[in-house]
């Protein structure tokens, strides 16, 4: 019998907190300003300006160095194999 009363009180407390939360949320929702967001990629002028800015910032790309990089010498630990001649 004690468990039934305990569960009933716990459920009652939960329902009261849930009701207060729901009412508060509804009231706050009415007070919030309505905002409409637009993604910048929807604006054609923004895209043109962005492409121009990126083109100006990057400029001409430098050519890659045609000389091959020298290989780093391998580290030896003293166990080198003799050259077969």
Question: Keywords, please?
Answer:
single chain; 85 residues; mainly alpha; 53% helix
Short description:
This protein is an all-alpha fold and 85 residues long.
List the helices and strands and how they pair.
Blueprint: H1 2-31, H2 44-58
Can you describe what's shown?
This protein has 85 residues and is mostly helical. The protein has a domain of 57 residues. The chain has two helices and no strands. The protein starts with a helix and ends in a 27-residue tail after the last helix. The mean pLDDT is 77.
Number of E-state strands? 0
Structural class: mainly alpha
- Characterize the biggest β-sheet: none
Helical residue percent band: 40-55%
Query: What's the mean pLDDT score?
Result: 77
* Helical stretch tally: 2
Strand content: under 5%
Roughly how many Å apart are the termini?
Answer: 98 Å
